[in-house]
Amino acid sequence: MNNGFIRHPHYRLGLFFVLFAATLMLAACGGGKNLRGGETPTAIDGMSGAGDRGATQGTRVRDLDVRGLEGIPQRDRAMFTDPNNPLSTRVIYFAFDSSAIPSRFSKVLEAHADYLSEQPDVKLRLEGHTDERGTREYNIALGERRAEAVEKILVLSGARSNQITTLSFGEERPAVQGSSDEAYAKNRRVELVYVK
User: Fold this and answer.
1) What is the domain class of 36-195 according to CATH?
2) Residues 170-193, buried b or exposed e (16+ Cβ, 10 A)?
3) What's the pLDDT tens digit per position in 88-130?
4) Residue of 132, 125, 127, 126 lying closest to 172 (CA atoms)
């Protein structure tokens, strides 16, 4: 190659675009790899971000961006994917062996209750989960208590009881595999799933 060709402005501009496109492709392919196809990793007790706004806000467990919105009209889905909107949080986290809803989720549940009260045809399924500790029977019951606790708050805040169903999976569907405190914390949850 001759140095005069490299100095040519069109060549340098073309090279810039090739390098820029390659950088974008690398970032899209691996730079922000998420857990389990969509979960945004964060620290548990001060979690922040949409979905796994961590325990503070909630986690996109198993790609809830798509899975949990089947019952939401297309015109409203942007509200549920905007990380600045409390509706984007669709996972509520719990302390060990507890069904008490942490106060940090008050605004999140209030936003979901407001949405449900304004949309009487929308249905919500609350899926309760636990970590792996405890017997299967105990964990099914604990997951149900967690889901029912969320249901109670939503109904008290304006949602209709006929819009909400509860289901417990206990320890059967972990969001995160493992036996660490962080994995346990992400598995003690209720997922808010809008169904058709």
Assistant:
1) alpha beta
2) bbeebbbeeeeeebbbbbbbbbbb
3) 999 999 999 999 999 999 999 999 999 999 999 999 999 999 9
4) 132
Rounded Cα distance between 135 and 113, Å, is 33
Q: Are 109 and 92 in contact (CB under 8 A)?
A: yes
Q: What burial letters (b/e) apply to 73-90, b meaning 16+ CB within 10 Å?
A: eeeeeeebbeeeebbbbb
pLDDT confidence tier of residue 67, bands split at 50, 70 and 90: confident
Tokens representing 127 are: 């899926």
Distance CA(13)–CA(19), nearest Å, equals 10
Q: Who's near 151: CB < 8 A, 6+ residues apart?
A: 126, 161, 164, 166
d(CA 184, CA 129): 11
| Alpha carbons 21 and 87: distance in angstroms, whole number | 34
Q: What's the rounded Cα separation, in Å, for the pair 101 and 104?
A: 8
CA atoms of 80 and 20, how far apart (whole Å) = 32
Domain ranges of the chain: 1-33, 36-195
Rounded Cα gap, residues 150 and 101, in angstroms: 7
Question: How far is CA 138 from each of CA 132, 169, 186, rounded to the nearest angstrom?
Answer: 11, 11, 18
